[in-house]
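testing teh design pipeline on a random one, pls ignore if ur not involved
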């Protein structure tokens, strides 16, 4: 055991000096309680902010991003749908009449359709965008489902890039 050396002015008779040193180095009970409350408030605030940020990121992904991003299996199916679209008679007739600029693929799990009707292939032409989808449950044939406005109709093409 080590022997603790107590300075002579801190002897038992000089209790005022002990109290002063205790207040200087440790603080009063109310100061200690205030420090604990402050630390608790800081930790609680950080916890609430962290949970809020995580809920925002997770909710955004779950509600807004996930329904429009295909899984790896769906991406493969969409690729095969593009191939079937290019091979279809309706696409060949469309390519003869209009200049095909781009082919895009998309999925919308929010629109209430079930597989494969929630997947679309969009064929952009110089006049409008034509939407192709599966004609049956097995997706044995692609057909034109509708058409929509094409950005190339009223605006100048962006490609090829001009130097």
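output:
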């Amino acid at each position: 055991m080590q022997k603790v050396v107590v300075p002579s002015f801190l002897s038992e008779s000089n209790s005022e000096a002990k109290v002063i040193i205790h207040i200087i180095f440790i603080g009063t009970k109310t100061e200690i309680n205030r420090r604990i409350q402050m630390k608790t408030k800081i930790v609680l605030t950080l916890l609430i902010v962290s949970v809020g940020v995580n809920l925002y990121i997770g909710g955004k992904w779950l509600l807004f991003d996930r329904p429009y991003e295909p899984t790896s299996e769906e991406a493969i199916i969409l690729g095969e749908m593009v191939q079937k679209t290019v091979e279809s008679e309706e696409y060949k007739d469309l390519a003869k009449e209009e200049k095909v600029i781009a082919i895009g693929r998309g999925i919308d799990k929010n629109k209430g359709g079930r597989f494969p009707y929630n997947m679309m292939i969009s064929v952009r032409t110089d006049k409008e965008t034509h939407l192709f989808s599966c004609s049956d449950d097995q997706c044995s044939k692609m057909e034109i489902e509708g058409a929509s406005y094409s950005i190339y109709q009223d605006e100048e093409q962006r490609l090829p890039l001009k130097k």
